[in-house]
Every structure is written in structure tokens, then in C-alpha cells.
Amino acid sequence: MGLELGFVTQTTMHYTDALPAATAMNADYVELLLDGHHERSTLDADAVAETATEHELDLLVHLPFGFDVGSPYEHVREGAIRELSAALETAAAFDARKAVVHASSDAWSPAWEAESVQGTIVDALAELEVVAGESGIELCVENVPGEWFGLAEFPRLFEATDVSMTFDTGHAYVEGYDAAEQAAFVAEHADRISHVHVNDVRTRTDDHVPIGSGVLDFGRIVRPLATATLSAEVFTPSYEYVATSLNNLRRQVEALDSP
């Protein structure tokens, strides 16, 4: 199977230690969170590229949070798109393959209809997709609970744009999808799901606990995917917990090839 394994850096993790740690874990890539000390204007793209080459790792990025691409207000929306576009250009400078983005808006729901805000988000994502494509990056939109596009609304994104999807297992569980229902969604949309954020849960909250310490069956969830990148996303500063997660995920993925 063409399933590659890596992990998302957390706010305490710097690429200078995350990439050597990834090599020790036998990861295929690292997904750099372009926020905090990895914010684009403070990041040395050449140094990132050199470090990745040294450790024979690919790079993905998670674009920064908190940008209102669906704002009904022109200047807010355009500023968000400009900043995310600049982050994509920085990611391209160190040859990132994929970029994760949230379909977000802080539009005040009592004042703005969902249909209108969702349409604005679709237009913004289509614009960002062009920027990403010109930079050689695959744009992957993540399902986030409480945002304007839950899992049930993703088919609209698929119909209106050519973006790929980042399927987040924990977020799906928060929305009420158990492992069987997640597997069914993945099977139905396998041609659009290029990337997966793999994180475990114990409750209907956004736990992001280490893989294997919660309730989800990841082998079942990702089985429909012939090719994809799978990022362990664990809320921890500990590379030991990340390594445990990646090893548990690797065992489940390798079991898929067993008769």
C-alpha cells in the first residue's frame, strides 16, 4: 500500500529537533506547523530544506490557524488569503508537498446565512488552490468540528473545487462518526482524501491523545485508501509519545497487507 507515515509538529517542537527525531522514528516526512516559531517571516526556508535533505525526509505543512477566509468583509478576507498565500510560497521554497488548511470563518452566525459564508469559503479555497498549484503544492482542506464545513458538507467542497481533503479522525469522532462510519466516509471519498490526521480519542472532545490509547480502529478507517500521507497528530511536547503513536499506527497499517 502507498501509505506514508509522519507526524505534525506541535508548538513546542522546532524543525531542528523534529527532523532528527523523525529520522529516529523511521518516518517518511514531517508536517511542519507554520505558526509560532515556524511563522513564515521568521523561518529560514533554505535551512529547513537543507535539514530535510540531510535527514532524507519529505516535508508537508499545516498552514497557520485563525485566518478568516470566509469573512463577509472584503479587507479581512483578502488579508487572510494574502497571508496564507505567502505561507504557501514559503512552503514551496523548502519543497513542501502538501499544505493543510482550515475552511474557517468568524462570521457571526446570527447575521450571516450559512449558505453565503460557505460560498465565500469555497471561493477563497479555490483561490488558494491556484496559488498552491503554482507552487507545486497540493492543498488539503481539513474537517474541523464547529466550523462551517463539517463532514456532511464536504461533498459541496468536492463538487465546487478540486481541493484534496485532510481527513481528521478525532475531529470526525467529535462530530459523531465512529470508526465504522469514518471508514464508510473514507471509502466513499477515497479519490479526494490525500492526507489523514491520525489521532485517538477517549471522549467526544478534541483529545488528540496518543494512538492506541483511545477507542479508534485506524486500520479500519484507512483501509479504503490506496495512497495517502498519514500524520500522527498528538497534543504532546514528547517525541517519545509521538514515536509510540507512530509505531502503533505502523503496526495497524502493516497489518492491512496481511492475508
From TrEMBL:
KW Isomerase (keyword) present = yes
UniProt keyword terms in alphabetical order = Isomerase
Give GO terms: molecular function aspect only. isomerase activity
Matching Pfam families: AP_endonuc_2
Top-level taxon of origin: Archaea
What InterPro entries does its record include? IolE/XylAMocC-like, Xyl_isomerase-like_sf, Xyl_isomerase-like_TIM-brl
All residue ranges annotated as the Xylose isomerase-like TIM barrel domain in the record: 21-244
Q: What is this protein's name? A: Sugar phosphate isomerase/epimerase
Provide the species name: Halapricum desulfuricans
